[in-house]
Specification:
about 375 residues, TIM Barrel, Lyase, Ornithine Decarboxylase, Chain A, domain 1, alpha/beta, 5-stranded antiparallel sheet, elongated, 11 helices, 20 strands, 9-stranded parallel sheet
Length: about 375
């Protein structure tokens, strides 16, 4: 009944806009054009990892990155042969072996990773492809940028590892230019030291979607693009990207309610007159009205959210969905699986299609993904 709809032409538009913007970076010192690594983690940002990846391939993208072993293996099992980079480091030998056997490029970011990967390479009698991860101030995976000597000594002793790239991850590139520049400078310093010690770092990539758009001089050899393909960015979009995906549901029931009748949990809405309503089987469990994580923002932004939430309690800010290109107000609270719409004096029928804005990342995985 419900579906997350992805318009292929809108996705194609975003891909082309991003590729065109990437082409403005020109070429690196070796004459190579900027490489786009498409991040397809979290079930392809909610678009369905296999079909989304295939759509990117159809539009000229040939390099991908994931966050879990399961994501990588799903792509391989679907017959996708293109390059896949595992962005999460691991010291679990069984997992690493399975990834290597499926030709997935590993992330190497610690002494433990290095020792196990080198040991695995000896057992399999092959060079294992890796990207080095440098922790420039995010605090997750990677060699700490200030411990260069330890890293260099370790890397020089590896016999079965092929370094194909080196990267870092920005923590606040969507709003903090000063800290992003500091992370970039730390990364470049590490790269210079690696080269001075005759360790070839491979392709260099630091930019996520936000940094890709905001700091072109940081593009280096490659960029990692995730949310930009979906046109869902927490800052002003200069590429005129289209917001990808919406929920599609339908009207399943219509009824008349008398004046003074409560609708939904908490009795948060009471009809002011005789009201005709439509019931739509789509709620927050489907992904409707679920917001992005608050940890994406500064303390001042969190205060702003709290202030806005308080305002909504008093203003009872309305939500709307669309039927036949017309807005319809949601009455009462959004339920787990249903919403009620005010269709008084409107010609709405059972089975009419309902278009609902929702971030695909939060749309339940059981809901069908439909590419049109």
């Amino acid at each position: 009944m419900n579906a997350l709809v992805i318009e292929k032409e809108d996705l194609r538009h975003n891909i082309e806009q991003i590729k065109e913007f990437a082409s403005r970076s020109g070429q690196d010192d070796n004459g190579n054009s900027l490489k786009i690594i498409a991040v397809v983690k979290a079930n392809g940002y909610g678009l369905g990892i296999v079909e989304y990846t295939k759509s990117l391939i159809d539009n000229g993208i040939s390099s991908f990155a994931v966050s879990t072993k399961e994501e990588a293996l799903v792509l391989r099992e679907a017959g996708i042969k293109e390059e896949i980079l595992m962005l999460s480091a691991s010291s679990i030998k069984e997992d690493l072996k399975e990834l290597v056997e499926n030709d997935v490029v590993l992330t190497l970011g610690s002494k433990e990773d290095a020792e196990i990967i080198d040991e695995l390479g000896e057992e399999l009698n092959k060079e294992i492809k890796v990207h080095l991860k440098i922790d420039t101030g995010f605090g997750r995976y990677g060699f700490i940028y200030s411990k260069r000597d330890e890293m260099i000594e370790l890397l020089k002793n590896l016999k079965h590892v092929k370094i194909e790239g080196t990267y870092t991850h920005f923590s606040v590139s969507f709003f903090d230019e000063k800290y992003t520049k500091l992370q970039f400078e730390r990364f470049i310093n590490v790269i210079e030291v690696l080269k001075m010690n005759e360790i070839e770092p491979g392709i260099l990539h630091v930019c996520n979607s936000a940094a890709f758009l905001k700091y072109p001089y940081m593009h280096l050899n490659a960029v990692r693009i995730g949310s930009a393909f979906l046109g869902r960015l927490p800052f002003k979009d200069y590429l005129h990207l289209k917001k990808i995906a919406y929920l599609e549901s339908e009207v399943t029931e219509i009824k008349e309610l008398p004046k003074g009748f409560n609708i939904g949990y908490s009795n948060s809405y009471k009809t002011k007159k005789e009201t005709k309503i439509a019931i739509v089987p789509c709620g927050y469990m489907s992904g409707y009205n679920v917001k992005a994580e608050d940890d994406l923002f500064r303390f001042v932004d969190k205060l702003r959210f709290i202030k806005n939430d308080i305002k909504k309690l008093f203003k009872k800010e309305a939500l709307y969905v669309k039927i036949n290109n017309e807005d319809y107000k949601v009455l009462g609270r959004v339920g787990a699986y249903h919403i009620a719409l005010d269709i008084t004096e409107k010609k709405v029928k059972i089975c009419d299609k309902v278009i609902i804005e929702a971030n695909p990342k939060f749309v339940d995985s059981s809901i069908r993904r439909e590419y049109r």
